[in-house]
Amino acid sequence: MARQRPSYKLSTRNVRLKLKPRQEPYWQPISTGKAIGYRLSGNGSTWFAKFINDENKRFKQTLGVPDDYMDADGKDVMTYAEAQEAARLWFIEMEQNPTGGKPRRYTVNDALNSYVVYLREEKAASTYRDAVGRINGKMRPQLGNIKLSRLTAKRILEWRSGLLTDSTDSEDIRKSKDTANRLLTYLKAALNRAFVLNMVANNTEWKKIKPYKDVGRPRSVYLTEQQCRVLVENCSVPFKYLVEAAIHTGCRFGELIKAKVGDFDNEKALITVTGKTGNRNVYLSEEGLLFLQTQTSEKSDDDFIFQKNDGNSWGKSHQHRHIKKAVDVAGLPPETCFYSLRHAHVSLALLKGINVHILAKNLGNSASIIERNYAKFIESDRRAAIAKSAPSLMDKSGNVLSFAKNK
Question: For the whole model, what pTM was predicted?
Answer without folding.
Answer: 0.50
